[in-house]
Amino acid sequence: NSDKSLTGKTVLITAGPTYEAIDPVRFIGNHSSGKMGFSIAEEAANRGANVILISGPSSELSNHQNIEIFRVTSAKEMFTKVFEYYENADIAIASAAVADYAPKEIAQEKIKKSEDSLTIKLVKNPDILKTMGERKTKQFLVGFALETQNEEENAKGKLQKKNLDMIVLNSLRDEGAGFKGSTNKIKIITESTVTEFPLKSKTEVAKDILTFIEEQILK
Ligand code: PMT
């Protein structure tokens, strides 16, 4: 791949976790740091793309001139921001760890400690990536799958159900893969292929993902 191989392309990327408020002081979240998504954003920008990066709460930073960062908190906020930019995107990559459920009601005041057990009713969040699949026109659409068992089968299921062009699988059963750390180990799955990559830094993983996408687009 040449240096500026994504010049003229708009790449939309989701990154990080989402936080779903329970009350003014508490939330439901997950261990995503945003590192994977920010690494993809940096690499796409280095290749000349115009990058729209929509991130949940993360301490990752970027001041790359080709990256416009929008910071959101909840899945619903991420959904709204994504669909402000999706239509114009040539490539969309969903690396965010979006909460599948959110508290049905957000308590207005801090919930007091009283009973021995507390029940919080959760309701399903919108599936951002699935909606992107439904609204796909020209976009090359890439999802992630974070699995702990039946990895390939589950990832393939998401590829089909969400109308994706490819999915990046990472498994929490592989040491050094997934959340937080600066490394990842992935398989890239398309309708007809499974390609396995060794454990690498997230910076290198981002290069593999974008090179694979470029090859698919040029096919
Ligand atoms: O941020 P890091 O610490 O670097 O960690 C990186 C990562 C492990 C978070 C990342 O590599 C990763 O796997 N991201 C996807 C995590 C995830 O939520 O996977 P999933 O299998 O639950 O979701 C499948 C796909 O649907 C994902 O592309 C997800 O972004 C998307 N999704 C899921 C639910 C939802 N409501 N909306 C979505 O868009």
UniProtKB/TrEMBL annotation:
| One record GO biological process | coenzyme A biosynthetic process
DNA/pantothenate metabolism flavoprotein C-terminal domain boundaries: 6-215
Q: Which segments cross the bilayer?
A: none
Q: Which cofactor does it need?
A: Mg(2+); FMN
Q: What does this protein do?
A: Catalyzes two sequential steps in the biosynthesis of coenzyme A. In the first step cysteine is conjugated to 4'-phosphopantothenate to form 4-phosphopantothenoylcysteine. In the second step the latter compound is decarboxylated to form 4'-phosphopantotheine.
The gene designation is coaBC
Q: Which domain of life is it from?
A: Bacteria
- What's in the keyword line of the UniProt record? Decarboxylase, Flavoprotein, FMN, Ligase, Lyase, Magnesium, Metal-binding, Multifunctional enzyme
Relay the cofactor remark from the entry.
Answer: Binds 1 FMN per subunit.
Instruction: Give Gene Ontology CC terms.
Output: phosphopantothenoylcysteine decarboxylase complex
Pathway membership, UniProt? Cofactor biosynthesis; coenzyme A biosynthesis; CoA from (R)-pantothenate: step 3/5; Cofactor biosynthesis; coenzyme A biosynthesis; CoA from (R)-pantothenate: step 2/5
Which EC numbers characterise this protein's activity in its record?
4.1.1.36, 6.3.2.5
Tell me which species this is from.
Kaistella antarctica
Does Ubl conjugation count among this protein's keywords? no
In its UniProt entry, what is this protein called? Answer: Coenzyme A biosynthesis bifunctional protein CoaBC
Q: Which reaction does it catalyse?
A: (R)-4'-phosphopantothenate + L-cysteine + CTP = N-[(R)-4-phosphopantothenoyl]-L-cysteine + CMP + diphosphate + H(+); N-[(R)-4-phosphopantothenoyl]-L-cysteine + H(+) = (R)-4'-phosphopantetheine + CO2
List residues binding CTP: 100, 110, 126-129, 144, 158, 162
User: Region Phosphopantothenate--cysteine ligase: which residues?
Assistant: 11-219
- GO MF term list: FMN binding; metal ion binding; phosphopantothenate--cysteine ligase activity; phosphopantothenoylcysteine decarboxylase activity
The text of the family note is: In the C-terminal section; belongs to the PPC synthetase family.
